Amino acid sequence: MIALIRYTFATVLHTQRYVAPLLLFTGLMGVLTVNGTGPLPGAYASSAGAMFVCSTWLAVAVTSLDEPPQRAITIVTAGGRPLRVLLAAIGTVLLSCLALMAVGLLLPLWLGDHAVTAADLLLGTEAQLACALTGTAIGVFCSRQVFTRQGYAVIAAVALLSGALFTKGLPRSTVCSPSWRPPPTPSPFSCPRAP
To answer: CA dihedral defined by 162, 153, 84, 73, rounded to 10 degrees?
Structure first.
């Protein structure tokens, strides 16, 4: 499996299919988190949204990397197991998302003025991991193996991304929104107010 992931990384680097999602991610991070002040979860919500879109694009690019004859050769070389080739592509995308996640966690701290707590870092990590996994799942679904025509894949990806981003009632719409604030915790030294 490691050899397949290395092969997929080498092919992605050689074909430079990572450049467009990487530029989109850095552009969104630069625009959405530059000179940020205030609570850190708002900046992490922006970076999680950027991760969501970029992981989808990266997953479509990586899983649709090889033409069908080259993919058949890769499957035969992998022992005739197409699932291993698909899992290697997914592993490549997730490892790339881990590198982007480090940027998404550290860039708001470097460019903005935020109070850093361990809870905020954990929230940012969880949000970006959830968005990376969801975006990768959508990207794999919209790859060449499912949609043979690229136009249909783009329409499906935009519809699924829009549905995931704009559906009310999902957990991310309450926790990861920039206006979200944690509930106030009463101090052990404060006196309860009389009605």
So the answer is: -160
The contacts of residue 33 (CB under 8 Å, 6+ apart) are: 43, 46, 47, 107, 108, 111, 112
What gap in Å lies between CA 57 and CA 140, rounded to an integer?
A: 10
φ, ψ dihedrals at 37, nearest 5°: -130, 165
pLDDT by residue for the chain (195 residues), tens digit each? 888 889 888 888 898 888 989 999 988 888 877 776 777 877 888 888 889 999 999 999 999 888 888 888 888 988 888 899 999 999 999 999 999 999 988 888 887 777 788 888 898 899 999 999 999 999 999 988 888 888 888 888 888 888 887 877 655 544 444 455 555 555 555 555 555
Q: Is the pTM of this model over 0.90?
A: no
DSSP H helices, the chain, are: 2-15, 19-33, 40-63, 68-77, 82-111, 118-141, 150-166, 172-175
With beta carbons less than 8 A apart as the criterion, state whether 19 and 61 touch. Answer: no
For helices 68-77 and 82-111, angle between their N-to-C axes, nearest 10 degrees? 100
Q: How far apart are CA 87 and CA 174, in angstroms?
A: 32
Give Rg (Cα) of the chain. 20
Three-class secondary structure of residue 47 per DSSP? helix
